[in-house]
Write a structure and sequence with these properties.
Layout: H1 2-23, E1 36-38, E2 42-43, E3 47-50, E4 52-54, E5 60-71, E6 76-93, E7 99-106
Parallel strand pairs: 2-7
Antiparallel strand pairs: 1-4, 3-6, 5-6, 6-7
Length: about 120
């Protein structure tokens, strides 16, 4: 009788775990690797440049940081004539909250890149 009770307890636990796994898949998102962004590494001002994202599960929220740049909901970056320096494009996967980013620089803003050495 004790063995039967133990076997029934184990079966009940296995059925409970199986039911949880079967019926709770919509509760947990299975996240892919961190989103990766593809697009140009350099941008001339003024101009527009398309960025895309891979490894995203859900809706993408695009963001760009930098002087004189903006981005729309499709990943199209607009670089205005006053843009300078560099910018970072990022995409947040709404399903998992993971963020991918890519850096780019503006190449023809009338300035030049200088290597600065700093030693302590």
């Amino acid at each position: 009788m004790k063995k039967l009770k133990t076997v029934l307890s184990v079966l009940f636990m296995l059925l409970s775990i199986n039911s949880f796994l079967l019926f709770s898949t919509d509760v947990f998102a299975v996240c892919s690797p961190t989103p990766t962004i593809s697009g140009p590494d350099n941008a001339a001002a003024p101009g527009t440049y398309q960025y895309t994202v891979n490894n995203a599960q859900g809706e993408i929220r695009w963001c760009v940081t930098g002087v004189g740049v903006s981005i729309d909901a499709t990943g199209l970056v607009t670089v205005n004539s006053g843009a300078c320096g560099s910018f970072t494009v990022s995409a947040t996967d709404a399903e998992c909250g993971q963020i991918g980013s890519k850096d780019a620089r503006i190449t023809n803003n009338g300035g030049s890149w200088q290597m600065i050495y700093h030693c302590d």
